[in-house]
Amino acid sequence: MKWPATITLMRHEQSAYNELRGRKENDELYQEFKAAFAKDHRSYKTRWLAEDINNRFALDVSDYDTPLTQYGERCAFQKGEQMRLRADEYPLPDIVLVSPYMRTQQTYTEITVAWPALLSVPVIYDDRIREQEHGLSLLYNDWRVFHVFHPEQKKLYDLMGPYWYQYPQGESVPQVRDRIRSMTNTLIREYAGAHVLIITHHLTILSFRANFERLSAEHFLRLDKREKPINGGLTRYRGNPNRGTDGNLELEYYNRSL
Q: What is the CA radius of gyration of the chain?
């Protein structure tokens, strides 16, 4: 069979950006900004609120350097402990592939603290499984704020839609799917029959699913809207040697929290 025996995809645990987004949603001023944006994103009031929001909710770090929160670190440790105690369901993988971003590296590190045997498994940091690059919009930490300051980008986004739109100095969804296709070729070429653990990000997990299952752009967007990968969520594909000429992958579960 050309496929790995299993491919287990794990999203990193709670990051500083995830926590920031939660604080914004509970902030009265941010709710006022959202209402003003929906009414008229070009108004003076919306721009004034956007400037305030951009100053109050700034991470001041790159996407690459965004760390886990302390809560995220605890969750990653607990995830490693649960996997170690359920060895029948989560056997030691043959290879671990990790996005080089700080939050995924920290997730891996905390898992190994609770599951020391994982340290004996080869680990590869592969930039093809990094998160979607959001380019210029990262300076604002919020897509609405970005659109207020760059209304031509909002117009382009509305015209093209979230699937095809490419962030300035960043990527579109199809571009992420392209590098995940490259990653899939590596899995077939180098890890046929192996148990593979991949610690990665929200959009890359969706891209793996879309590529493995040949999902359309519309299906991708529905999945992203209704069933986003959760922090620490596990998705597993199992190779079935009896399916097709060279075997194929079957989705065993998606977004499991343990």
A: 20
* Residue the block writes with tokens 């659109």: 147
Chain centre to alpha carbon of residue 171: 14
Are the CB atoms for 188 and 134 separated by under 8 Å? no
**CA–CA gap between residue 208 and residue 198 (Å, rounded):** 11
Q: What is the pLDDT of residues 14-44, one digit of tens each?
A: 999 999 999 999 999 999 999 999 999 999 9
Segment 220-257, tens digit of pLDDT: 999 999 999 999 999 999 998 888 777 789 999 999 99
Burial class from Cβ neighbours inside 10 Å (0-12, 13-18, 19+) for residue 123 reads middle
Q: Would you mind telling me the total number of residues written for the chain in this entry?
A: 258
What's the longest Cα–Cα distance across the chain?
A: 63
Packed helices 44-56 and 28-39: angle between N→C axes, nearest 10 degrees: 140
- Report yes or no: 168 and 200 within 8 Å, Cβ to Cβ: no
d(CA 118, CA 199): 13
Distance of CA 114 to the CA centre of its chain: 23
